[in-house]
Amino acid sequence: xxxxxxxxxxxxxxxxxxxxxxxxxxxxxxxxxxxxxxxxxxxxxxxxxxxxxxxxxxxxxxxxxxxxxxxxxxxxxxxxxxxxxxxxxxxxxxxxxxxxxxxxxxxxxxxxxxxxxxxxxxxxxxxxxxxxxxxxxxxxxxxxxxxxxxxxxxxxxxxxxxxxxxxxxxxxxxxxxxxxxxxxxxxxxxxxxxxxxxxxxxxxxxxxxxxxxxxxxxxxxxxxxxxxxxxxxxxxxxxxxxxxxxxxxxxxxxxxxxxxxxxxxxxxxxxxxxxxxxxxxxxxxxxxxxxxxxxxxxxxxxxxxxxxxxxxxxxxxxxxxxxxxxxxxxxxxxxxxxxxxxxxxxxxxxxxxxxxxxxxxxxxxxxxxxxxxxxxxxxxxxxxxxxxxxxxxxxxxxxxxxxxxxxxxxxxxxxxxxxxxxxxxxxxxxxxxxxxxxxxxxxxxxxxxxx
Length: 451
Known about the structure:
The protein starts with a strand and ends in a 9-residue tail after the last helix. The protein has a 6-stranded parallel sheet, sandwiched between helices. Strands 7-10-11-12-13-14 form a 6-stranded parallel sheet. Strands 8-9 form a two-stranded antiparallel sheet. Helix 1 links the parallel strand 1 and strand 2. The chain folds into 2 domains: 2-136, Rossmann fold; 173-442, TIM Barrel (Alpha-Beta Barrel). Helix 10 (233-243) runs parallel beside helix 11 (262-270) and helix 14 (330-340) packs parallel to helix 16 (391-405). By secondary structure, it is α/β, with parallel strands linked by helices. The model has no long low-confidence stretch (mean pLDDT 95). Helix content is 38%, strand content 15%.
């Protein structure tokens, strides 16, 4: 039997596909599915962000995973393959938490939740002409059941370039997973909805095995794909202790809580952490409470961010604009905060009411959702009617904040002089700032592109 695994790209507003010639990391979903697939199946993987999907590839089953705005492209690909007589399976966060009937309009079967315990059964059923339609595990997977992936199956790494280019080796981050889920209650978050606020960690031995296999391939820069690797602080501390002798460099998403535990922060820095992407979201406690993220406590942000800087850890701030309780002043206040606290990079987001989340239910009940085209759920589109400003003010403020943050004056104020600790990583982020500055100079609107 023949299996075709596809990670789709997504559409731009003009209908063109988002494509790139290189990307700074690579996902693990498709390599994991390949590792779960019975050995008597032949498997091909395509990541459409850099590759081309072959609609005429000879196969028996096509499996497509999608999250966010990928879902529209996933549905179109599924329809095209079914028109050619292929069996199609859809899965991923969006398929799992959105109404299942929408995805079943485009697929023969869907995988809801984690795949480890149902994937082999799904393939066996389709091969035998059977079909349960919805394949859902009856319990969360024990982390020991997560299979070991073959890192040679990564689709977004350019292996030839990695071998010969020191610059590319500085650029590419090898993906690793320590945990799944997040116990926090943020109302807009698809992750806590998908995992129902559960949280599990893999053993340090399993993670170190991945790290050493990556090192055997020449890699030492890692990206932890975890949504919240420190939700169990004791487990995180043990992992970080074990990572110190490996002499790697790593980055991850994280909560601001890492800055409030001195031992945890010190171990993270000593284990090789150089940058963290942190969902600060807002500097207004009242705004955060409305989206069930009051635990962030912005009154402590300045001290938190200084603690991170003192350890040589750069911060990529994720900020939301257009939330209830924000008016037009949010843009200047946010920009001043980001500059004052020497934030390395920023990503702005407009509120996205993911189907299945508490936030979606709240906005739907209020009649606030203005766009049901899931192709537009790209974190930068106007999906809700803002209450504190006009649409035009939100769009203009979004763009102006990006341009001001990535102006040469702002870059100099935030990023210079280079620190003694992790200066090379810091220099790379200066370059990233300059490249973003040039992008914005050539693309007047950042709306829905950078985010």
